[in-house]
Amino acid sequence: KNQVEQSPQSLIILEGKNCTLQCNYTVSPFSNLRWYKQDTGRGPVSLTIMTFSENTKSNGRYTATLDADTKQSSLHITASQLSDSASYICVVSARNTNAGKSTFGDGTTLTVKP
Amino acid sequence: DAGVIQSPRHEVTEMGQEVTLRCKPISGHDYLFWYRQTMMRGLELLIYFNNNVPIDDSGMPEDRFSAKMPNASFSTLKIQPSEPRDSAVYFCASSLSRTGHPQYNEQFFGPGTRLTVL
Q1: Is B38 on the interface with A (CB under 8 A)?
Q2: In angstroms, rounded to a whole number, what is the distance separating the alpha carbons of residues A84 and A98?
Q3: Rounded distance, CA A65 to CA A21, Å?
Q4: How many CB atoms lie within 10 A of CB A111?
Q5: pLDDT digits (tens, 9 = 90+) for B14-55
């Protein structure tokens, strides 16, 4: 069964600090992995998408890594800001499937405090 | 572009009533998705359409749920009759396919409809 597990479930950090969120998956055959940011009361917004051949991708202060061998991904946030407080969702899609067949993680809730 | 538009943003209804949620995808997008999000189950895909045709409705919880897409710019998700356990945030998302690689589509989500069934 395809699964995506995220850790930690929640995280509190001080403004300006760095943090790393983890995503482990069992989706096979792997196609791509996305990280979404979801602010409270809003829909998810895509941060990065990574395919099998990519192991690092950055979007401003957000850097995602992918290890397709161990089926792990991480999202590193540098110099956190109060606006980074949100839920971060990892989504993994399988190859050779319909477009909608993605597996969603339960998300990590990040709180950045001043 | 205004992005994906959903209405209403909030809906409160009583058990047994019919509820209709509406979605206008981003113009030109050929995929449309309906999701439900709850604290207990996270984000769940209910159904998705490609070029207005339902492709996979295996996520629809039961016959009380139905979805239609009469044209490329409008879709509805209907619950009849509604039950308290249907209370959730319902998201609509749309995407534009890249030829031969639909799994790489970036999905753009609407703001969601918060449904409360009393």
Answers
A1: no
A2: 32
A3: 10
A4: 13
A5: 999 999 999 999 999 999 999 999 988 889 999 999 999 998
